[in-house]
Design goal:
The chain is mainly β. The protein is built from 5 helices and 45 strands.
Length: 668
Amino acid sequence: MATKKKMLEAAAGGAGGAGLDITEVFSTYLYDGTGQALAINNGIDLDGEGGLVWGKSRTDNGVHSLYDTERGVQKPLFSNATNAQGDDSGGGSTNGLYQFNSNGFNLGADWAGNINVSGQDMVSWTFRKAEKFFDIVTYTGNSTENRKISHNLGCEVGMIFVKRTSSAQKWVVYHRGNTAAPETEVLYLNLTDATSDLGSAWHDTAPTSTEFTLGDQVGVNKNGETYVAYLFAHNDDDGGFGPDGDQDIIKCGSYTGNGSTDGPVIDLGFEPQWVLIKAATRPGGENWVIYDNMRGISTGGGDPALFPNDPAAEDYGGSADNSLDLLPNGFKITSASGRVNDSYTYIYMAIRRGPLAPPEAGTEVFAIDSESTTAPTPPSYNTGFAVDMFLSRRNVTTSGSWYLYDRLRKSDVGLIPDATNAELASGGAYSTNDRNDGIGSYTGTVYSNKAYGWMWKRAPSFFDVVAYSGNSSTNTLNHSLGVAPEMIIYKARNGAVSWRVHANITGSGYDRLVLDSSSSKIDTEVYGSGKELASQPSATELVLGSGSGTNNSSSFNYIAYLFASLDGVSKVGSYTGTGGTPQNIDCGFTSGARFVLIKKSSGTGDWWVFDTARGIVPGNDPALNLNTTDAEDNSYDMIDPYSAGFTVTDAGYDMNESGSTYIFYAIA
């Protein structure tokens, strides 16, 4: 991975070359406050490249603390206050944020800021300095008009926060979408105020790709005072990020609210992971508000909010706080609240979800783990990455249902793969969106190494998730897989409808199977508006017909899970049984398959689950059926290890019958 990173950085922004990945310049990182030494390893090079760390307690009424590499460690600013910069060193050299590292930062006991509160749930947002994304400039005021300040964004400036650091003063904000003449207007980050005319801040001059202009206003340019400016880019098909150096990762724009729960759709050209919104023209003002997909932006559910101008704890009141839904190409406003959707102008900053590059190893995006033998300390299931989909069996040695959770819906709302049930009510035991390293705490019984979790991360060419509403007509859905999916699993969230599986294993068309059933495939190669698929899925779209399993009326909400083959990482394929002769299934792997799902498609047969955590070994293998509640079966030698994939052995147990066709999904 180090070689790949160096290559991307060396060629960043180059014409036709690779650019930086979003994961290298931005991170939302959640952690448990300790009030003592704590290393946050978020993968962002702050020591070598520089940047900003913005921290806040989610569960406590504590200040927003901002530390940056230009002013140095232990010098917090507070977005919700006018204070001059604080000084954590008064409590010792290892208090507050006391070190910037090549992969994150180090924290100690809280002092002037609230970035590591013992016993509190914390969030940090880290912005790395990078061309066309983010920059930091410090300067000393001189009270002169038409003062030019150089910066290194190298593209259109989307937003600027300016704060006087040497003494108390409001945060002054420029935003490119703040009225038709944003260079004449200001907002204040620490206040709810609507926009106001203050030409003396920006000298009535719009910023350029290399500089911004100041007037003599005391909030930005008082003689002898010191200032810091945080500059955020606006990409407009010129971002230069990703494997081909052609992707945008940050947008700063505006929209007009309509005061309805069916609010406007903001087309970004990408799915965001972090969104900042402010009512710019609403009389009486309104809070600034931050949403991110790590704390949770649930499709059809509540969205935990934090407010840069307010030290209040996270505002989360369930479905009543459903403010926005994420889309593969942007976001949709789903609330009529003044916070995001009164009949006025709103400004936003949105940062793209990553990663942008396909994974190079299965361990980057898939993990299997079992609970410990004692009550687990979070995370209950370890991965080393943030989980986007979690498949669970609470006790594999006894009968019991499967449960499936995903970040895009809501972390504690389960679906049952072995049943037709609608999704469960909120309040389940797990949370997929409150950890960067696995699944959070489980509140139920621990089953002594008999509870297992299978966990996926969304990534190009590997796995994606799309939430949508039915329309009982042709329904075109965007997705972010980047290649045509080879297997798609659908479920109606609010209806007792069987799971649908579309598998394109021959390249000639998609066949339909049912996940909660052992039934054989149904050919759906003839597409049309009345079918479940109206046309072949592409690298960017699913086009559904009016089939009720995938696209009933608008009263039905759905979730779709998209899987693809990726060299050395995953394989969706098929094979024909040979009878009693074992056969090797070549997936293109080098160290064998860690996870295998197999289904006989030419006749009835269960969905068999195998994995190396429970055992893929020569001899009998512990097997589970995804479509039943049956306990693990160790009675048969069904598959064996094989370095390029796996070997199927058994001739009579739904695995290798002569002449039968099987589909499989394997992960290295």
